[in-house]
Design a protein that fits this description.
single chain, mainly alpha, two-stranded antiparallel sheet, elongated, binds zinc ion
Length: about 110
Amino acid sequence: MAHPYHHSLSSVRKWGGRIEDYQRIHDWFDESKKIIADFRHRALRHHAEGIFMAETIFGSTISLSTGRVIPVRWIGEQHVREDLGFIPSFADWMKAIRPEPWMGRALRMDSEEN
Ligand SMILES: [Zn+2]
């Protein structure tokens, strides 16, 4: 499993600059390892919607230490492709979730009449 450092090295090879220019973005994609330590952590951010979410957090572009401006979406796309080989949609991940009874359970709300 690629470490955010290695994704950052790959970004430097593609667009120049320094590892620190990219590290916080790659760290964010892999932060979900805090939740589950195996590859399933990728379901949280490694998809098309996750890449767009990165834009809302880091902005649509970053300025490298060289002054070059790079779209954050490019960095997200690079990360997800390097990990999965393609960019899935969140729906692709959802298809792999086995439904459990508790997921569809709903309690009666206080405002409901008997
Ligand atoms: Zn990753």
